[in-house]
Write a structure and sequence with these properties.
This protein is of the alpha+beta class. It has two domains: 8-35 and 126-292, Up-down Bundle (Multidrug efflux transporter AcrB transmembrane fold); 44-121, 2-Layer Sandwich (Alpha-Beta Plaits), CATH 3.30.70. The chain has helices at residues 12-32, 39-42, 57-66, 94-104, 123-151, 154-178, 184-214, 220-252, 258-277, 279-285; strands at residues 36-37, 44-51, 73-77, 79-87, 113-121, 181-182. The protein has a four-stranded antiparallel β-sheet. A two-stranded parallel sheet has the order 1-6. The chain starts with 11 loop residues before the first helix and ends in a 25-residue tail after the last helix.
């Protein structure tokens, strides 16, 4: 029984508009609201406290201010009983400031707090890490474009890079909108997503190239629909397998892997979507045709009077 072809490209225009609007919202949020940068990038000290019962952020902040600990940012971390307290770089050592914060946070005898973790990063180190992170993302995108241009065609390379930029901005935009912490583990997840998304896109491109050479009478839109339909089952199985692993990391990996897992989970769906509608749509928009995949023989192998290659 012949497999039914799903007409993905029929909706490429509305999907492109939707993608543009979603990414635009994320970019606006990044510029206006900014990212909730972790201490890896900003420098400073963070103290994690765990209460027995849920606690109000404002109550913790007021208790810290009464104890003389100024310029703090208090936020819930996972649950309402687990809080993260961020503050500028401190003169005291990490252990001392942790004990001071813990004592100040014991404002309710019925709801005692325990110290979970104390981290300190210098501001200069944070600035260097932030700059190097931006360079790492930019360099990875450039090298991906070169790789696709060499392996396939430049038309595919542009679509692939736009797809990867879409995935990156979508993931970072979600973190900005939600106010989730953005640290080195999240950046590692973004870089991993770039590689994963490109791998998924390469599989689609490979099938598109094969079908352009095999299906001589079909038009480019139909060939891409056929290629996407043929790779859809593989894409779903791969994503489902990775999602299961990421969910296990999210619930069993502890706080250290929480936001890494969240970033992967968000980016996986963005990457799957972009492989279908972003990468191939932009290749079509740049005039992808059968001529891009026809292997022309060298002139010395064409016999005189043979007009089949002309």
């Amino acid at each position: 029984m012949e497999e039914k072809i799903i007409r993905f490209m029929r909706f490429r225009t509305p999907m492109a508009i939707l993608s543009f609007l979603v990414v635009l919202v994320g970019v606006v949020s990044i510029f206006i609201k900014g990212l909730n940068l972790g201490l890896d990038f900003t420098g400073g000290t963070s103290v994690e406290l765990a209460y027995v019962k849920p606690v109000e952020q404002m109550a913790v902040q007021e208790a810290l201010e009464k104890a003389g600990i100024k310029d703090t940012v208090v936020q819930h971390l996972g649950t309402a009983s687990h809080v993260l307290i961020r503050m500028p770089p401190q003169e005291k050592a990490g252990g001392e400031i942790g004990q001071r914060v813990l004592q100040a946070a014991q404002f309710d005898s019925q709801n005692p707090a325990t110290l979970r973790q104390v981290d300190s990063v210098g501001s200069q180190v944070g600035d260097e890490l932030y700059t190097q992170s931006l360079l790492a993302v930019g360099l990875s995108l450039f090298l991906m474009m070169v790789y696709v241009a060499v392996r396939f065609r430049f038309k595919f390379a542009v679509g692939a890079v736009i797809s990867l930029v879409h995935d990156t901005l979508f993931t970072v935009g979600v973190f900005s909108l939600m106010g989730w912490p953005f640290d080195l583990t999240v950046l590692a997840a973004v870089l991993a997503l770039i590689g994963y998304s490109l791998n998924d896109t390469i599989v689609v491109f490979d099938r598109v190239r094969e079908n352009f050479r095999r299906l001589r009478r079909a038009d480019p839109v139909e060939i891409i629909d056929i290629s996407l339909t043929e790779t859809l089952r593989r894409t779903i199985m791969t994503v489902a397998t990775v999602v299961i692993v990421v969910i296990a990391l999210l619930f069993l990996g502890g706080t250290a892997l929480k936001w890494f897992s969240v970033a992967l989970l968000v980016g996986l769906f963005a990457g799957t979507y972009s492989s279908i509608y972003i990468a191939t749509s932009y290749a079509l928009a740049m005039g992808l045709s059968k001529e891009d995949f026809i292997i022309k023989p060298k002139e010395e192998f064409v016999e005189e009077g043979d007009t089949s290659q002309q």
